[in-house]
């Protein structure tokens, strides 16, 4: 198989032999960085500012912020109760999930408020992996299945289909000679009740992201985020971050998108409300009609419950970094910056603005390691599905804070938008497009510097 260099981290030259092309693979040239200036930043261990919590165990992603007043605790934990609710269980409240859904509760996908993962085998049904759909031309919902393929249904209805997930392996080699492999997911949709998806239908697999720190991300001033955008790459650094502009369903206006894998939601409230209706078939005032219904009805989540849920979602705290002063971690941060990772995963402090009613997230100096902008990551990671202004190969830079605790909290190390990366290193190796130069430099690094960069990521 001929593998693109941006994905496999190897260079290739083609020789014409008779009437056929043969590929000659050459190991990339080593990159020796030598001495690097230390990265000195104020209070870098406090990723979430004064909200930061020190828990590093299984509940590290589900903690209240350290600066939350005691008077807020009842509402915070009431909001957690809404988050933990099973919307198909009628023993404590009316069962309202469905008729079609991917899950019946937030915790099903966001276990311990953490990351989802793809199935571990082809025969395992996806749990925290959703499949978003578009029409063949990418404009609007799929004509037969809407915006999302629902693999579950309430009694009396038939799920829209099933999916089998297989993985195709690709191999590469580091400059120091060690081999590595990447796996690309292949999806087979079976038992589709309304017929085939059709040629050209756009499908995007998305695992559930972590929940903590979202209130802080929402509090970052829009002007600060837009100041980092460079859609025409006027500074010629190869990085052309773009802002997604999406509909605010409350105001009817177009606003900066900052939530979701493609920054397709402008506010945290809209992100949560959309997840309720798209993933669980549970309606709110923002989205009063679920898929499979002919007309909107009364909201199934009361305004009070939605407000409580938003308190919980807005205040979930960011965990503190570990081992940030260790020499290997400090070297890894310098390498992270030297090879270009910080061009998108911004490693300098950012400050939130004032948020009415939420002093906890107001005016905090934070380190989320993201610019919240769209970047083209190449064909290797492309899903082909536009989302707002995002093209089929663009993704929002995901925050890296807390990424080193995913294994402790969620008992897995699956990363990227569809969970294809089986480790942090594989996540780095999948980067292409604007990130291809940084990926190529990583492949060329000495083993010690690669290990240092991974130690830095695990410290976040």
TrEMBL record:
Pfam families: DHOR (PF06537). InterPro entries: Cyt_c-like_dom, Cyt_c-like_dom_sf, Cytochrome_c_Peroxidase/MauG, DHOR. Keywords: Heme, Iron, Metal-binding. Residues 74-317, 327-460 form the Cytochrome c domain. This is Di-heme oxidoredictase family protein. It comes from Corallococcus caeni.
